[in-house]
Design goal:
Length: 190
């Protein structure tokens, strides 16, 4: 009888300690890394040139796996004799789910895009602001308790047009609106 009583007391004492070892979910996430956009703004058929850049994002505390995320992407490159410097500021929901140690997530973001004025072919003037949207997902793999490695990718839409001398926008057939985007980097969970 005393051995059963001792085992019961030990079990009751260790149960709260086992629950205390569970890590509380991170309240905020700060992400930074490399990003690649599948085409340049003036990359018409036969002249596709991907753009390299960076991504920075901030995600607010989650509620049942759903959190609000603000995302900034900037790219640099040259295509058809023109510099390409687009950037995108997006925000929207991100839903994450833990699978073992990893966390998978999906997100849908919308906002605005901007670009340098002379992004058109051979320096032609173009719109410097446009609507942008992104749908994608990714995977976070923990490296330490607060740092994770993130890989993500998805589909991005943005609509930039060229300008005439009168600043009236016009669209060239084949001007890209649909882009693929991938990125990888580190997430700090705090």
């Amino acid at each position: 009888m005393p051995s059963r009583f001792l085992a019961l007391v030990t079990l009751l004492c260790l149960t709260p300690a086992a629950f205390a070892q569970r890590e509380a979910p991170a309240r905020f996430q700060l992400y930074g890394g490399y990003s690649f956009l599948s085409n340049s703004l003036n990359g018409v058929t036969g002249s596709h040139q991907g753009l390299s850049g960076y991504e920075a994002a901030f995600a607010f505390p989650s509620w049942h796996g759903l959190r609000f995320k603000v995302d900034y992407n900037g790219y640099r490159g040259t295509n058809l004799g023109s510099p390409q410097h687009p950037y995108y500021i997006l925000g929207g929901p991100q839903f994450g789910h833990r699978l073992g140690k990893e966390t998978v997530f999906v997100e849908g973001l919308a906002g605005t895009g901007g670009a340098n004025q002379s992004w058109g072919t051979n320096g032609a003037l173009g719109q410097t602001a446009a609507f942008a949207a992104y749908m994608g997902g990714g995977l976070d793999t923990p490296l330490t308790r607060r740092i994770a490695f993130r890989v993500e990718g998805g589909y991005q839409y943005s609509y930039f047009e060229l300008n005439t001398k009168n600043r009236v926008p016009y669209t060239i057939p084949g001007l890209p609106n649909n882009f693929g985007r991938i990125s990888s980097g580190l997430v700090w969970k705090f």
